[in-house]
Amino acid sequence: MTDDLAARLARRLSAVADAPVAVDGLRRLTAGASRETWSFTAAHADGTRRDLVLRRDPPGADRPDGMALEAASIAAADAAGVPVPPLVDSGTDATTVGAPYLVTAHVEGETLGPRLLREDRYAQARAGLAAELGRTLARIHAIPLDDVPGLAAADPVEHLRTTVDGLGEPLPTVEIALRWLERHRPEVVPEAVVHGDFRLGNLIVDETGLRAVLDWELVHRGDPREDLGWLSVKCWRFGAPLPVAGLGTLDELLDGYAEVAGERPDAEAVRWWQVHRTTWWALHCREMAERHLSGATPSVELAAIGRRVAEQEHDLLLALGIGVDEPPAVAARDASAASHAARDALAPTSDLLGRPSAADLVEAVRTYLREDVVTAGDERVAYLARVAANALAGVGRELALGPEMERRHRERLAALGYRDQAELARAIRRGAVAADDPALLAAVRAAVSDRLAVVNPRYATLPS
To answer: Which of 244-258, 280-294, 324-338 reaches the highest mean pLDDT?
Structure first.
């Protein structure tokens, strides 16, 4: 596949340059669960070489309108003074490089949030980055809507309802959030170009600060405060305590925004969007998993992302003030106990099958992935091996803890008068049970805590 793609890229870039161009060093990057990202070098006939990046839809899952909109957004952002990778070429004809695509210049810097938040060399950049990101968002929101024709818009709460109904897997936590969002809608403001995925991971940063804004795949028209809220949700802080991407305070972000926009967004409206986008991310994780479950895009990464719904449920409860009641020290101890219980579940679980048990096999495969595949040298294979190993760790915890958790779950539902959590979610939707009923909230908190103990017990110990 790599050789064929390199040949296609060479033909296309030669046509764009009206001169021969060779493609060297093509490799797929780990970034992007929904679109492929490739890096390569374009070698021109005059001896010049240029590092470039290809983004394309997964072949067979073409979204030509979306790719065209992304390319138009990058061009409009560039014209508005937003730092973006220079656009080299784009197209929606799948025969060109196998799928709709865009090619940009490579921009030096780091995108990985944990590195940006923890490595000493980015200390100077971190010091002023929250305000800088506020200024950048103000410039994005100042892009004239007519410069990016075709931007979609939707009612934010109805969009979430439509999404959860389409998934066919109702969640009580999401229904509680939807009720809160409906009751606390912020004052309407004029629509703007909304990036839609402005966060660490989609920003290139070097030692001096922001270098480029990436991934305009979710661009749309709507409330500009959505981008501010998304940048501030807990999952994109990567364990750091500061509320804006782990980098700074909300005041720093909003003050930076006001420097360019001339007015300061309402902090309570930004909080509303934090709740909204946490809900959206919970549903989007499940949507991405559905692409794997349906067979449309088989992927261990997409399958693993589906289990992250529990993390967003946990964050939703915290954001709504109905989160876990236990202090962090207790949560940390329980998370450790859950992990140890899973690792110790190596006794035979079946008189028929004996040893190795299912838990034995899970641990053996997880160790192989961690110790052999991760160190094999291929960057993307190593990344997916880590994803798979983490997923198997969760399977091990489920084997050890799941039966007892399931029993408690059924007892909690029965005490409320419901057969399953889908029935409970529907009752919340139609108002048959109050979304702030203490017994309901206690049951939902317990269910989310159990799910998180299987999926990612460390997550409960991160700063809230």
So the answer is: 244-258
Q: What is the mean pLDDT of the chain?
A: 90
Q: Is the pLDDT of residue 110 over 60?
A: yes
DSSP code per residue over 164-204:
HHHHT---HHHHHHHHHHHHTPPPP---EEE-S--STTSEE
pTM: 0.90
Q: What is the pLDDT of residue 348?
A: 46
Which of these, 269, 268, 273, 279, lies nearest to 176 by C-alpha position? 279
**Domain locations along the chain:** 2-105, 113-153+191-265, 292-461
Separation of CA 433 from chain center: 31
**The domain 113-153+191-265: what is its CATH number?**
3.90.1200.10
The total of other beta-carbon atoms located within 10 Å of residue 309's CB is 23
Contact between 216 and 78 under an 8 Å Cβ cutoff? The reply is no
Q: Collect all residues with Cβ–Cβ distance below 8 Å to 297 and sequence separation of at least 6.
A: 58, 61, 291
Write out the E strands in 170-297. 192-194, 203-206, 209-213, 220-222
Name the token pair of 331: 């949560």
What digits encode the pLDDT tens for the residues 350-397?
666 666 777 777 888 888 888 778 776 677 888 888 888 899 999 989
What residues contact 302, with CB distance under 8 A and at least 6 apart?
Answer: 33, 288, 289, 291, 292
- Token output for 252: 């720093």
Class for the domain spanning 2-105: alpha beta
Q: Read off the amino acid at residue 83.
A: P
Residue 387 in 3-state DSSP?
Answer: helix
**Of 46, 261, 285, 226, which Cα lies nearest the Cα of 136?**
261
pLDDT digits over 283-314, tens only?
A: 999 999 998 888 888 888 888 899 999 999 99
Other Cβ atoms within 10 Å of 285 Cβ, number: 22
- In the numeric block, which tokens belong to residue 131? 């305000």
Enumerate residues 6+ apart whose C-beta is below 8 A from 185: 157, 272
Q: Do residues 135 and 259 lie in contact, with contact meaning Cβ atoms separated by under 8 Å? A: yes
Highest mean pLDDT among 32-41, 249-258, 287-296: 249-258
Determine whether 317 is exposed, middle or buried from the number of CB atoms within 10 Å of its CB (0-12, 13-18, 19+).
buried
**Percent of the chain predicted with pLDDT > 90:** 72
Using an 8 Å Cβ cutoff, are 74 and 216 in contact?
A: yes
